[in-house]
Amino acid sequence: MSEEVKVFAPGSVSNVGCGFDILGFAIDGIGDEMIFKKNNENKIRISPVNGYENLPTDPKKNVAGVAIQALLNDLGSDQGFDVEIVKNIKPGSGIGSSAASAAGAVVAVNELLGSPYSRMQLVDFAMIGEEVASGDIHADNVAPATLGGFCLIRGYNPLDVIHIDPPKDLWCVVIHPQIEIKTKESRELLSPEIPLKKAIRQWGNVAGLMSGLYTSNYELIGRSLEDHIVEPQRKVLIPEFDELKLSVMEAGALGCSISGSGPSVFALANCKDTADVIAAAMDTVFKRTELDYKIYVSKVSEGGVKIL
Ligand code: ADP
After folding, report:
1. What residue stretches are annotated with the GHMP kinase C-terminal domain (predicted)?
2. Of these residues, 130, 226, 231, 240, which one is catalytic?
């Protein structure tokens, strides 16, 4: 059994337009690197996080530490681990920064312990880790980061994750304006009531999106990405959202919406060439603003966390 392992923990896009709180997919183009070493002191130690010194190193506050502890508790082990995180996904980006750390941690520790758990079982522990970041149990980022592809979170009691392999030519473009949107604030904007007519359109789209993913019907994926409920309420937080969406749709995107609770925005495409054109269109819109931003062009991740 090895004593040390390095992993790539991918970013992820949750909500995916119509699938508020129930859908997410992982992306290969951005992720954290994490190094795990066994120690003989029965302690989880987290080094200061490279690039983001403000992130907690207390293992009870860092999602990686909490996720590892949840796994060790279930296994009845007191093995210690030293954890190093090279964080490339900015916290609060809407592309699953904390979820990447939680997913990377459980996959790496499982590997170092001789793989007692399946990837699907690891999602439970990653989700417990993710809870310290958001104060709430949710798996729409940790499940795809751990498993790859698309994940539908059908329910939580017990956790029921349906994994869907991504259609083979599905590309994603994400623009991350370097502003901070707190998930809590972004949630407070949402009305607790949904008019029945809107709900009907929304669940039609969720079912359409699922069918499109299973049958690699890109056109159906595109027309199902519409979000009649959350996007119209949240888009006010994202600079240039309407113009951005119009430009990427003109550039050939299948669909476009807010990634997680923002400020990142994602678009899907059916080939790399179109994804590049979409990235250029995003760049043109955002160049006019005073804001810093980053754009990632990436295939949908097939396997989630990768052992390097
Ligand atoms: P994101 O969706 O990008 O993960 P959140 O706002 O949901 O953004 O989570 C970020 C919060 O999680 C911050 O308060 C941060 O301090 C906390 N956190 C704890 N551990 C980590 C970690 N390893 N990586 C990123 N964020 C972490």
Report:
1. 210-287
2. 130
Which pLDDT tens digit goes with each residue over 2-34? 899 999 999 999 999 999 999 999 999 999 999
Both 106 and 175 in one domain: the answer is: no
Statement to judge: residues 156 and 215 lie in one domain: no
| pLDDT tens string 229-252 | 999 999 999 999 999 999 999 999
Active site residue 130: yes
- Regarding whether 114 and 211 lie in a shared domain, the answer is no
150 and 259 fall within a common domain:
no
Q: What is the CATH number of the domain that holds 226?
A: 3.30.70.890
Domain of 241 in residue numbering reads as: 171-299
132 by Cβ neighbours in 10 Å (0-12 / 13-18 / 19+) ranks as: middle
Poorest-confidence range of 43-57, 215-229, 247-261? 43-57
CA 115 to chain centre: 24
Q: How many domains does the chain divide into?
A: 2
* Closest ligand 1 atom number to CA of residue 49: 23
Q: How many whole angstroms from 168 Cα to the centroid of ligand 1? A: 30
Chain centroid to CA 27: how far?
8
Q: What is the torsion angle, in degrees rounded to the nearest 10, for the CA atoms of residue 250, residue 251, residue 253 and residue 256?
A: -70
183 included as an active-site residue = yes
Give residue ranges with CB within 6 A of ligand 1.
55-56, 62-64, 85, 91-94, 96-99, 101, 133-134, 183, 260
